[in-house]
Fold:
Amino acid sequence: MSAMDARRFETLAEAHGGLIARWPVAEQDAAYAWLAEAPQAAQAVLAQALALDEALDVLRPPTGSAGLREAIIAAAPAPARRWALGRWLAGAGIGAALAAASLAGVVVGVQVAGPSVAVDAADATLAAASEEDWTLLPDGESQS
Amino acid sequence: MTLSSGDPDEALVARVGRGDHAAVQALVARKLPRMLQLAQRMLSDPGEAEDVAQEVFVRAWKQAPNWKPGVARFDTWLHRVALNLCYDRLRRRRERAMAEPPDQVDPGPAPDRGLLARDTGMRVTAALAALPDRQREAVVLCHYQDLGNIEAASLMGVSVEALESLLSRGRRALRAALADLRE
Structure:
């Protein structure tokens, strides 16, 4: 723990504000110890610094104009076509495997659980497999 | 996710570098508010702040495929790029001001000035804008961007002691400028 006295405590508050949690990490333990040792004086120092913090916090974070976010995203480079195609083909392979597995499940399900339950389960599996394929494509790639 | 470099943005930047559109959106959601805030506090001009934020991301998109983890945190690099762009604009403003001295502005009648003075946000913005650039940079990085003293000092290329001095002088000036707000 670093050395702390009234002067150093004031210096830190003046530089870093009224919240000890925002002071240099290496000095926080000593600062809390000083706060416990001389609470009245230390609290007065913190209160003065906190008043400035609160005044500065009157400025809310800017949100940016409509369309800024979209313009920034639109400026991002698209992935290489070959890479996208490779990812799509890999995804299609996974999708096909899942679809085959689900069809096998349909057959077994029809035999074991009756048509209604089996068809629902197969539909859900196929839908999940289909979504998996398309999520491997970046937005903007054709899904049709 | 934090990878071996300890940079919380490392995985996201790697995905951006591979052209992952979802990662692009996530990075913008994570960093755009911080870049806007930084530029707005440094320049006190919403339009210029947005221009800076857009330019920061143009550089980020170029850099992402070649990003080498471990050299610097991506967030620190983004801050450095944004600050450089802000300083370019501040320098151009000064050059324009020297070339074309502004006309004397009529401060208007006293009641209007009184109304203006009561607008705390404008007062704080004006007080920040009146600080010397390096003091404003220190206050913005530590107070608004919530960077630690070591990271902020490194970003500014100064020692932590020098940063503390810049912060102290900056906050003293702000306190003096805004003293009546706290009465």
User: Anything to note?
Assistant: The first helix of chain A runs from residue 6 to 16.
